[in-house]
Amino acid sequence: MGSQPITVITGASRGLGRAAASHLATVEGHLVVATARKPADLEALRARLALTGHSLACQPLDVTDDHSVAALAMWLAERFGRVNVLINNAGVSLDHYSTSLLELPFETLRTTLETNLFGVLRVTQALAPLLRASRAGRVVNLASGMGQLADMASGVPAYRISKTALNAVTRILAAEMADSGVKVNSVCPGWCRTDLGGLDAPRSPEQGIDTVVWLATLPEAGPSGGFFRDRQPIPW
Ligand SMILES: NC(=O)c1ccc[n+]([C@@H]2O[C@H](COP(=O)([O-])OP(=O)(O)OC[C@H]3O[C@@H](n4cnc5c(N)ncnc54)[C@H](OP(=O)(O)O)[C@@H]3O)[C@@H](O)[C@H]2O)c1
User: Fold this and answer.
1) What is the second-level CATH architecture of the domain 6-228?
2) Ligand 1: which residues within 6 Å by Cβ?
3) pLDDT by residue (tens digit) across 58-101?
4) Is 163 a catalytic residue?
5) What percentage of the chain has pLDDT greater than the value 70?
6) Ligand 1: which atom is nearest the Cα of residue 191?
7) Residue 99 φ/ψ, nearest 5 degrees
């Protein structure tokens, strides 16, 4: 294990999380802990990486479940005693462009926030001691241009609100964790072809994770508390 970075990715079963797990394990040489609600969903990726001699640690994780998050934190503490990178990728989009905020069922908003906001916070709180222990932790939050106040519009209101709130979490955590060398940033991956993004999106998942990987591997002089797309700062 040595000094190999330990990278935890939530929602690695498909889409951007799977692409990030693959890239960080094969290109960046990280020890990737890929997590999924159903670990069986990680088997195809693990088998594909094994063909080229790369390994993947697979663990169950539902970000909405306290016990699941605590179990992962305990497993990581016992096995590694640190986490270098946390990629808060798991996310849901449960409403639509046609959904009006004025008619939005509170249950849709609650369920969206449970994963996209509370889920991120639950996992980050549990892993914070391990990120601090690495002395140079990196937290990457998968936000979205849909959450930008500077460009706010109607449509998908629950998703938008969850991502705006997530950006606030990024700013607060960056301030709170600055003294322990942990950098916390938000990323908009652009519109990507995943189950969430749909088939018409212009970017592949591999293109979408470029800035995710960049933020996950930031040097000590790198930024914290920022919001980035294509490796450039974008308005909140
Ligand atoms: N695609 C885009 O265009 C785009 C643009 C901007 C931002 N983003 C953000 O990027 C992130 C990844 O999106 P994606 O496009 O890759 O979406 P996706 O293909 O729908 O994948 C979402 C992932 O999140 C996981 N997940 C959902 N709820 C979970 C929970 N409670 N616990 C653990 N994992 C959970 C899913 O796991 P299961 O397989 O178990 O459901 C899946 O692995 C999201 O946060 C999204 O908001 C995406």
Assistant:
1) 3-Layer(aba) Sandwich (3.40)
2) 10-11, 13-17, 36-38, 41, 61-64, 89-92, 115, 119, 142, 144, 188-189, 191-192, 194-197, 201
3) 999 999 999 999 999 999 999 999 999 999 999 999 999 999 99
4) yes
5) 99
6) 3
7) -75, 125
CA of 89 to the centre of ligand 1 (A): 6
Cβ-in-10-Å burial (0-12, 13-18, 19+) of 45 comes to buried
User: Residue type at 60?
Assistant: P
14 pLDDT above the threshold of 50 = yes
DSSP for 140-194? EEE--GGG-GGG--SSSHHHHHHHHHHHHHHHHHHHHHGGGT-EEEEE---SBSS
Instruction: Classify strands 227-229 and 232-233 as parallel, antiparallel or unpaired.
Output: antiparallel
Residue 68 alpha carbon to ligand 1 centre in Å? 18
Residue type, 152: M
pTM of the model: 0.98
Q: Residue 84 Cα, ligand 1 centroid: separation in angstroms?
A: 22
Residue nearest to atom 47 of ligand 1 (CA): 91
pLDDT digits (tens, 9 = 90+) for 199-230: 999 999 999 999 999 999 999 999 999 999 99
Helix, coil or strand: residue 90 = coil
CB-based burial, 194-218: b 16+ in 10 Å, e otherwise: bebbeeebebebebbbbbbbbbbbb
- Atom 46 in ligand 1: residue holding the nearest Cα: 91
The per-residue pLDDT of the chain, averaged, comes to 97
